[in-house]
Every structure is written in C-alpha cells, then in structure tokens.
Specification:
Layout lengths: L41 E10 L6 E2 L3 H13 L2 E5 L6 H4 L5 H7 L7 E15 L2 E14 L7 E11 L6 H7 L1 H17 L21 E5 L28 H5 L2 H7 L1 E6 L3 E3 L15 E7 L6 H13 L3 E6 L9 H5 L16 H6 L13 H18 L3 E4 L7 H15 L4 E4 L6 H11 L3 E2 L2 H13 L4 H8 L11 E2 L9 H4 L4 H11 L5 E5 L26 H13 L2 H4 L1 E8 L2 E7 L3 E8 L5 E4 L7 E4 L4 E2 L4 E4 L3 E8 L7 H13 L3 E9 L8 E6 L13 E2 L4 E7 L2 E10 L5 E3 L5 E5 L6 E6 L5
Parallel strand pairs: 1-3, 1-4, 7-8, 7-16, 8-11, 11-12, 12-13, 13-14, 15-16, 25-32
Antiparallel strand pairs: 1-2, 4-5, 5-6, 9-10, 17-18, 18-19, 19-24, 20-23, 21-22, 21-24, 25-28, 26-27, 26-29, 29-30, 29-31
Helix pairs in contact: 1-5, 11-12, 14-15, 14-17
Length: 764
C-alpha cells in the first residue's frame, strides 16, 4: 500500500467459478457469538429513561428500544418486567446519578435490576440528513446490593431524514446497537452469577476489546513450529520464506496472553503465490491465489480451527486478514475468469479516484468487485471461514482501492451472518480524520486504523516535533461517529518499525508506547515490537521474531495490565489540561476514577496541576508512588501517567459526562481571531485558513476559512487543538499551500477571543 499522511497539502477491518448469484448457507450454520443463558428463568426489573439535555426533565423511551432490550433479556432466560415510566419519573428528574437511581427503583421483588439511561442531542446537518448524538449508560445490579453494579457507557451517531424527527426517532434508530451492547454487559454481569448448570459464554464474546491489545503476527516471520511443512526456506535472505507457521503461533499463545494481548491478528493464511516477483518476496501472504484454501506452508484448516479454539479457551480473539482487492500475479483465476478483472493496467495517478479502485496496485490484478459474480465469490469465501474457523473479526486490506459501495454491502452481509460483535477493521493509509470517518461511515466498517494519531505520535517522539501534534490528532475525534472504535498503532508491515523511526532510542519508543497504550480506541502491536525489531522498508521491516531478547516487553505488559484494571484508560472521557509546544497533558475521566497522561518534550521538568474537580487519592502507577497534593511534576523527556480515585462512588460521573459531551460535540466555543499576512495572493485570489477542524474546511481548500481584511474569524470548541495552514486559492480553484509544518492553535477555557498572528511561511 502507498502511505499517505496529512502534512498539507499532501494527503497526508469457495472458488465457485461460473456463479452469478449468491446462495448463502442457512444462517444457523454460521458462527454467531453465544450468549450466557441462565438455567432457570430469573425475574429482572428494567427501567428506561430519556434524559433531557442540561438536566431539563426526563421522558419515556420509544417502544422499539424496549422491545429490543426485552429480546436480549429473554435470550438469557431473564423474565423482563418493564417498570411503568410514571412509577419512577418524578424520582429520576432531579437525580442524574446512576447509583442513586438504581437504589430508588421499586423492583417488584425481582432480584436483578437493569437501568437504561439515554440522552439525545442534535449535532449537525450532513448531506441533507439530520445527525443526532445518542448517549446511553447501561447498568445491571443485584437489588440486595451484594455486588457492585456493572455499568457500560456508549455514544453513537443517529441519522434521521426529516427535521421534525427529533429525539425519539433518533433514539429509535439505534435501538439495535443499544440492545446489543446491553447483551454484552449482561453476559459479563451474569458470568459470575451463573449456576453450575449454566452454559458459560465464550470469554471473547463479552470482554471489551478496548481493554487489551491486538497483536499482529506475520505468520512466516513468527515461529517455526513444524519443520515438515517448510518447503524451500532461506533464513539469510530477507525476501525468502523463513518457515513460520500456525503451529509456531500456537506454541506461544500463553506468552502473548501474559503480555496483555486480547486479539491475535494473522497475516493472510490463504493459498498464495510462493515464488518471488522481480526479487520481491511472497512470504507475507498478501499475494493470494485461492481464498478457499489454507496455504500448506502454514498448516491446514484443522490447525487454524485449533488455533481459534485455543484462543477462545484463553479468553482471546482471532482476526483473519482478508484480501479482496486483488489476487496474486498470474493467479489461476486470472486465466480461468479473465472477465472478473478490470484489466486497465497499472495505477499511476494516485490522486485519481477512478484509478484508485480500478487499476492494478503494484502489478496485482484488480478484481471487478462491482460484478455480482465477483461479489458472490468474495463474500461466500469469507463466510466459509466464519463458519469453519469461528474467528472474531476480519482485517480488511486495501480499503481505498475497493469501491465504498462494495464495502457497505459486504460488511453488512458479513455482520448479518457472523453477528453484531464481529469486528470488521478497515485498513486505509490516510492521515486525514475526516476522510477516515467518512470511509468508516459509508463503508459500514466497525473500526478503522487510526493513522492520524500514528503520524502524530511518531512525529513527536521520534522526530522531536511539537507535543501539540498529539492533542491535535485527538481533537479530530469530533468527526468520528465513535472514536472509541479506532485502532491505534505505532508501526506495521507497511511502515518503518517504530524503533527504527526513533533511531534505536528505546526510551523514545517507551514514551510512544505509553501514549498509545493509554489512549482511546484499541491498541494494535506488531510482532516483535517487544523485541525492538528494526527495519525501515520492506522486507527489512518484516524481520523474524526474537524471543531471546525483549527489552520492551515488561513496559508493554505493565501498561496493558493497567489498561485492563482501570476503566479510565480505555473508556474515560478526554479533558484537555495543558498544552504548548513542549507539553501536552490531558485527563481521561470515568465515573469512579481519572487518569492523567502528561507528555513533556522539554529537557527540564514541568508541573501540571490536577483540577480541583478531580480531587482524590492520586498515584503514579508506573513509578509506584503516591502523589502528595495536586501538583504533578513531569520529568524532562518523559510521559507521566497518574491515576486519581474518586472519594465517593460515581463521584466523577457528572464531570465525565460533561467532558465527553464537549470532546464529542464541542458545545462550548470561543471566538478565534487569526491575523494572517504575507500571502502571495494576486488580484482575484482568495487567502484561506485551511485545517483539520470542520470550521476550517477539514483540509479542503474549497471549504476553508476565508481571510478577509487580513483576519480570519471562527468559533472553535474549547479544549481543542487545531492544525492548520495558510492557502492561496485562485478563482479557478488551484490551491497553493504555504511551506513548512502544520501550525497548531490551542483553544483553552477563558473569556474573550483567542488571538494569534501568522505570516506566510516560505521554506528557506
């Protein structure tokens, strides 16, 4: 794949020949995540509430949401007793604390209580549709108080077609998602309550993936567990096969789990080209020849099925890498079905959207996914592996080279058969958050790799760039429907290894890992990062795993243990604390605790004050020491992680809710005035301020913020950091960007306008 980032102006998840229609197997034959069903029918009282915005009243929820939730309860042998809204409405209006609400509910003798709290807020008008944000807090508790309630929070965009459709319609449109997440919560809650005769759930079906890491293994490069299937190997040739296989991975599962890995992502294991192509190696598996067979060098279907079962027994997941854009050079399919390919030649213009999806990438024959028989072939092959191997997700290769219409159709079909929790992770090498968000939404992906944050972290720690870059990348979360669905990374098989990017300095790599493993989303690690593997380009960045030396393993394991144990580190709402060129500090706030992550790029220490709203017992877990007072001292060239515990149950809930609303919607804004000078504009040209924020055009000069009379004015959300550049745009639409790095603007709390002066930057 070709790497794109966003330093403007660069744009910067059976072979059936002759089939022309899709004939799916009976849905009962396809794996769906099982649920925990109690052996005896158990009564459960359930209450619903739609809270008004800014503590303005409460109302009942649509019947469709109640129906979907009751279905989830019934599937678990729970006798749902929906409490009349009028019986608790007046109790709920003045009280927003979940624990107090649970305590007030009259349960009618039911031993279990479920509470579904929702709030719906208007967001924006997008492409003629009205976008609302739906927030839900889902709770399950034992009425006798013998155990702590279990609570899960979520937010999701909802789109309605007409202006008169408001909160009720928006909430009704996402009822399935809310009910599905409640089912996940119930499986987790009931796991400890199930009797001896209950059928236990698969561990992988109810543990939130964000708590652990995805670990990417290039099969040939990890471990050789069975030398009998090696074929021709040459360990001295970086482009040759080295003998890694599925058995080698099986042999190391316990080590991966101990490090904190929750999901194992395999490079493609399907039958593939094995000969080099003009000196380039084929070992990586992305030159697929037959999606319906396992590559014999790696093992067979039985061994892949065994790997899936062993992972599930350990509470881990399996993600398969599926290549749907192309086949290998000279693959049998190119001769047997030449009409299945575009056959338009090599991709040469990477800015042409038509070429991107219809021409051959690096000589790989491009499939015509718009054909019904090609779609049927690709979908059926994929669903076969869902049925036979029972993976938990697909990593979907080369997203930008396949039409979005195909992805939307394919992803919906896979999800319908595999279940709503099946992960469909898209790989799109682009540094623009708005582009990734649009692709995820229109392609119906469950998750996308977070390349904007990747570029920021590597720039900051490996290239000594401004600490503001991390904050600017996180401030882009506003454009995503669910930023928690992003998958973060520091390197992969298409990028330079982070240890190489950081010049071999492992202290820099540790700081980068600390930021990644405490950020929102799900972290992904590439095999051998714990061993500090190096390599700038292919095939050097695809080296053999080393088990004899792993200098970063303890640091990764410790951070992932913290992540599992502290909800603030995987689900906390972000809140900016301090930011300048050398410092970026923010909090992640959960109802009962907060985490503070502070980056200091300077050589001298800096001091960060814990806000009074987060007063509580604080400690530095990485340093194993308590914190006295409310001042954190961050040593030079370091990243500090601090945990603050609420003095009372749910004591941070309100501030967490406010922080999440501000981060996601940016309701509180300040006027920004930027004085710009020196732009080389001719008569008729426009001078624009173009940046990452929607108010600055989301890096599109045609929608940038105009500079009029030497001044650009806008209202930007408080607590955000915004990258931008100056652009001169001609009447014909041609854009000239200023030289140099992106600029960053911090919008802190305060009164009055935020003012800045900038002059057109020319590279010397």
């Amino acid at each position: 794949m070709v790497l794109e980032r966003h330093d403007a102006p660069l744009r910067t998840w059976w072979l059936a020949l002759g089939w022309v229609s899709l004939a799916l197997a009976a849905s009962g034959c396809v794996h769906k995540p099982p649920v925990l069903r109690l052996p005896d029918k158990t009564p459960v009282a359930i209450a619903f509430v739609l809270d008004g915005e800014h503590a303005a009243g409460a109302s009942d929820v649509p019947e469709v949401l109640k129906k979907k939730v009751v279905e989830q309860l019934s599937a678990r042998n729970l006798d749902a007793r929906v409490l009349p809204f009028d019986s608790y409405a007046k109790l709920f209006e003045p009280v927003r604390d979940t624990h107090r609400r649970l305590a007030k509910l009259a349960n009618g003798g039911a031993p279990l209580v479920v509470l579904v709290e929702t709030k719906v807020v208007y967001f924006s008008l997008i492409n003629g549709r009205y976008r609302w944000m739906v927030y839900a807090r889902l709770s399950a508790a034992k009425k006798d108080g013998s155990t702590q309630p279990l609570t899960l929070s979520m937010d999701q965009s909802a789109f309605v077609d007409y202006e008169h459709e408001k909160e009720q319609a928006a909430l009704g449109s996402v009822s399935n998602s809310i009910a599905d997440r409640l089912g996940v919560l119930l499986d987790d809650f009931l796991g400890g309550e199930a009797s001896e005769g209950a059928k236990p759930p698969e561990s992988s079906s109810f543990t939130d993936p964000r708590q652990s890491a995805i670990y990417f293994v290039m099969v040939d490069r990890f471990a050789n567990g069975d030398s009998k299937n090696d074929g021709a190997i040459d360990l001295k040739d970086p482009a040759a096969f080295h003998g890694g296989d599925l058995q080698g991975i099986l042999d190391h599962l316990d080590e991966l789990k101990a490090m904190g890995v929750g999901t194992l992502w395999l490079s493609p294991v399907f039958q593939m080209r094995t000969d080099k192509f003009f000196g380039h190696g084929a070992f990586h598996g992305y030159w697929t020849e037959d999606l319906t067979r396992i590559e014999p060098r790696f093992g067979d279907v039985a061994l892949l099925r065994k790997l899936s079962g062993e992972l599930h027994e350990r509470g881990m997941r399996l993600m398969l890498d599926v290549v749907l854009n192309h086949v290998a050079m000279d693959a049998p399919l190119t001769r047997e079905r030449p009409d299945w390919f575009h056959r338009q030649g090599a991709l040469t213009n990477w800015s042409d959207p038509e070429e991107l999806v219809s021409r051959d990438v690096h000589g790989l024959p491009d499939l015509a996914q718009e054909r019904e028989d090609v779609y049927a072939h690709l979908l059926q092959a994929s669903l076969r592996w869902v049925e036979e191997v029972r993976p938990d997700g697909f990593r979907l290769d080369a997203v930008k080279h396949v039409p979005l219409g195909f992805w939307a159709r394919y992803n919906e079909a896979v999800r319908q058969q595999a279940g709503p929790q099946f992960l469909l992770l898209g790989e799109m090498l682009d540094g623009d958050a708005a582009t990734l968000a649009r692709t995820q939404r229109e392609g119906k992906f469950g998750a996308m790799f977070d390349f904007p944050l990747y570029f920021a972290i590597v720039d900051v720690f490996c290239r000594e760039r401004s600490a503001l870059k991390i904050g600017a990348a996180l401030s882009g979360d506003r454009v995503y429907e669910d930023p928690g669905s992003l998958v973060t990374l520091l390197d992969n098989h298409d990028l330079a290894r982070v240890t190489t990017d950081c010049g071999g300095d492992l202290d820099r790599v540790r700081r980068a890992l600390t930021v990644q493993l405490t950020a929102r989303g799900t972290p992904a690690l590439t095999w051998g990062i714990e061993s500090a593997l190096q390599g700038a380009k292919e095939p050097d960045n695809r080296g053999d795993m080393r088990f004899d030396t792993q200098p970063l393993r303890d640091h990764i394991a410790r951070l992932l243990k913290l992540r599992r144990e502290h909800p603030a580190l995987w689900s906390g709402a972000p809140w900016l604390l301090e930011a300048d060129e050398g410092t970026f500090a923010y909090a992640r706030i959960a109802p009962d605790e907060a985490a503070i992550i502070a980056v200091n790029q300077r050589s001298s220490p800096v001091r960060i004050t814990i806000p009074k709203e987060l007063a509580g017992a604080a400690r530095e877990p990485l340093a194993d020491r308590p914190i006295e007072g409310r001042v954190l001292e961050v040593a030079g060239k370091s990243v500090l992680v601090a945990l603050v515990t609420s003095p009372e149950t749910g004591g941070f809930a309100r501030i967490a809710e406010r922080a999440q609303a501000q981060w996601r919607r940016g309701e509180q804004k300040r006027v920004v005035e930027i004085e710009a000078s020196g732009a080389p504009a001719q008569q008729g040209d426009g001078v624009l301020l173009v940046g990452a924020a929607p108010e600055m055009g989301s890096w599109n000069p045609a929608q940038g913020l105009p500079v009029e009379g030497g001044m650009a004015r806008a209202q930007l959300p408080v607590g955000g950091i915004y990258d931008f550049k100056l652009v001169v745009r001609s009447a014909a639409g041609q854009a000239v960007w200023e030289d140099g790095d992106n600029r960053s603007l911090v919008v802190p709390k305060g009164e009055g306008p935020v003012r800045a002066k900038v002059a057109w930057n020319v590279r010397p």
